Structures are given as structure tokens and as C-alpha cells.
Amino acid sequence: MATTDLTGRQVLITGGRGGLGGAVVEAFVAAGATCHLPERSPSREQQAGVHAIPGVDLTNEEAVRKLYADLPPLWASIHLAGGYAGNPITRTSLADLETQLRLNLVTAFLCSREAVRKMTAGGRIVNVTSRAALVPGAGSIAYAISKAAVVGLTRSLAEEVKSQEILVNAVAPSTIDTPANRASMPDADHTRWPRPAELARAILWLASPENTVTSGAVVPVYGNA
């Protein structure tokens, strides 16, 4: 089996300090990529192959424009940043919906747009949506709407940038096996949840040179859930 080699390639990863982000960064660094991590606050953590970029608000259009403009030529842009809020529709305000759209859709939209502008010789974009966007559920309608919008963004953008040799895909996890999710759902069967390292491998392949034809896909990564 071929091993993904991203030596010399520049990759931007949003949400790189989150529960999924650590595993994704580790996978890309192990493949030889140089990873650029935008962060709201400065990080004291030093890691080979990682360039932290502090003070970036990914919901701010000008901040995201400057973030990408200052990067070297980019191979891949991986969009993990987002947020979750769970409530049924009768307890969901317009402000709640707008917040979820900003955290999940706006961040992915702005980063995707600037990544396309930065990729002059092909590239890869990977978004993160959710099982909630694909499988009807209840109790988190604003979140589901925002993640469904990420599906639309992914599929539409994949068609738009075909001629530029940019492949655009998304993964759709179920509940991810992170410490935060275990703490919030202590009685759940955690063994059925996909682990961050497993999701990272799927994202790495979609962003790899080995992926030459898959674009516009939304890959279910549910584990045994």
C-alpha cells in the first residue's frame, strides 16, 4: 500500500487544536506536510512542521483574506473549525441559527473561497459536515441546517473549480470519540463512535495526490454508530 507523501507541500488546517484537529495535524505532519494553523489566541505549543498563526477570526472576511494572502503557495485547505448547539426549533432563536451558520458555514465558505484564489496549480479542499446533515434527526436543527449548507457548498464548489484541477470533498462524521463528547454523553456506547485518528486518515486521503478523481463527495464516516 502506498504511503501518502506530502513532503514540501503547504497545508492550512482550521480547528487544528480541537478534538479532531490534533489527529489531523499529526497525520499531515507525519506525511511530510508543513501545516499552517490559524488560531484566535496564541499557542505556547511548539511542534515541528506546524506554523501557528495567532489572532485569526475565521468568521471575519478581511481576516481570512489576509490569512491566505500571507501563505506560501498552497496544496490543501482543511476546514475543521465549527461549533455545535443542540435545541429543538421552538427553543432556537434567529440568533442561534445565525451563530451556527457563522461558525459552520461562513468559516468554510470564506476559507474555501480564499483557498481557490491561492491554488494556482491545482489542490485539495476538504470540509467537515456531519451525519446530522445527511440523516434526519431531532433536537439540533440549527446545527443540522448549517452543516447541510456545508454539503451544498462542497458539491457546488467541486463543480465550479473542476477546470482548475482543485478537488473539493467533505467528510460527514457521527459523534466523534473525543474527551469532550464522552464527558457530555457518559452513558453512550463510546466504542461505536469514530475515533479522531480514523477520521484523520480519511481526510488525509481526500487531500492527497493519490486522490486524482474524487470530487464533490460527502463521505460518511460514522464508525459503528
Order of helices and strands: EHEEHEHEHHEHHE
**Domain module count:** 1
Global shape: globular
Give the radius of gyration: 17 Å
Total strand count, please? Answer: 7
CATH class value: Alpha Beta
Count of helical regions:
7
Q: How much helix, percentage-wise, in residues?
A: 25-40%
The side-by-side strand order for the widest beta sheet comes to: 3-2-1-4-5-6-7
Query: What is the fold-level CATH name, i.e. the topology?
Result: Rossmann fold
Distance between the termini: 28 Å
CATH superfamily: NAD(P)-binding Rossmann-like Domain
Q: Please tell me the overall pLDDT.
A: 91
What is the beta-strand fraction? 15-25%
Q: In CATH terms, what is the architecture? A: 3-Layer(aba) Sandwich
Largest sheet: 7 strands, parallel
Helix/strand-derived category reads alpha/beta
Low-confidence stretches: none
